[in-house]
Amino acid sequence: MTETSNSQDARVSFQELKSLLTSIFVNNRTSSETADILAENCAACERDGALSHGIFRVPGYVDSLRSGWINGLTVPDVVRLGPSFIRIDARNGFAQRALASANPLIRRTVRDTGIAIIATRNSHHFSALWPDVEPFALAGFLAITAVNGLANVVPCGGRKAVYGTNPIAFAVPVHDADPLVVDQATSVMANGEVRLHALADKPVPDGTGVDRAGNPTTDPHAILAGGALNTFGGYKGSSIALLVEILAAAVTGGQFSFENDFTGFAGAQTPKAGQLLVVIDPDWGRSTNFASRIALLCTQLVDAGQDRLPGERRFTNRAAAGQFGIPIAADDLQRLRMLAGEDL
Ligand code: NDP
Fold it and tell me: Cβ(151)–Cβ(110) under 8 Å?
């Protein structure tokens, strides 16, 4: 959670961590329903070792809620506008709450029509994307999503930030195995990772970003202080970031990353953006043996020498956390307990 987290690890159960986080959100202008959804999401990131979006994010959530930039009490508006098209106005609330509210409708729509397209606007996404897609793969569906954010990424060759770190994620079922889940920023590095480097005073690799004058730098502080990140993969990655911006902001009717303006909301950190999610039942109408075909594809990847499958690291961490508890620095745990209002 902070740079001073150098004490011995404590171990907590998922439920214990979730309950602490729920109290923290409720203490900070969040409804109990939304607090539960956010706490589940944040605790799951910590449990899976997705540390850039676990408890490290708690101060950012709290500051955004306290500043009034985001509404933790709001209820999203979910409307099915066509056989497969669902639009959500998150009403300046969290994207996870919006998605949870639409979940039964999404599943019904996929069962009815084979596909659901969910366009969410007026939402804040401050977490990893895998929790948004993995549950659909566990239900046998393919899910793909894109989210835009705060302008902190320069287009290829540019000197000024236009894109957010614009992550994309997808998940598919694999016969007799964990689902295949890919979740990545379209910037060279996720912003949370740059912040972790800055906290540790560690340089980032060459090519990660630019300083406020647009010059290349490996100093994470310079990237965070008015500089920006590069997209991955040169102009090709830059075009993927462009696609995310179009899908998540323009298709949804949400804000572009460069339209975020925190004026009057001191301390706010959550990007106000949009999210597009597509969920497909690949076996709809006729079996394609989809999960078995993906299993075959995964075997080929491993046989070809790929280090590991995407998502595998998290599933390994999850299993270990289930057995031994979630490791958390003792001083971080103490801070969480204080924020939760527990007597120490
Ligand atoms: P990483 O580069 O760490 O990982 C990207 C993907 O590649 C993951 O699915 C990961 O699987 C997989 N992977 C990593 N190493 C290997 C390997 N050697 N072989 C095969 N697969 C591999 O992610 P990023 O740093 O780009 O993003 C981190 C997080 O930040 C994401 O969860 C993203 O959603 C989030 N984010 C959120 C934003 C927001 O606005 N809400 C903005 C930007 C990013 P595994 O998970 O198993 O390691």
Answer: no
Residue 33 sits in the same domain as residue 135:
no
Q: Which residues are catalytically annotated? A: 52-53, 193
Q: How far apart are CA 118 and CA 252, in angstroms?
A: 9
Question: 123 and 268 share a domain?
Answer: yes
- Could you read off the pLDDT of 124-168 as tens digits, one per residue? 999 999 999 999 999 999 999 999 999 999 999 998 999 999 999
Q: What is the mean pLDDT of residues 287-301?
A: 97
How far is it, in rounded angstroms, from Cα 1 to Cα 5? 7
Inform me whether the pLDDT recorded for 68 exceeds 70. Answer: yes
Per-residue pLDDT at 4: 39
The CATH number of whichever domain residue 130 belongs to comes to 3.30.1370.60
Q: End-to-end distance of the chain based on CA atoms, in angstroms?
A: 19
Ligand 1 binding site (Cβ under 6 Å of any ligand atom): 50, 52-53, 125-130, 147, 149, 165, 167, 169, 182-185, 189-190, 192-193, 271, 307-308, 310-314
Strand runs labelled E in 71-167: 77-80, 85-94, 115-124, 142-147, 153-154
The total number of structural domains in the chain stands at 2
Domain range enclosing 235: 78-187+231-309
Q: What is the pTM of this model?
A: 0.95
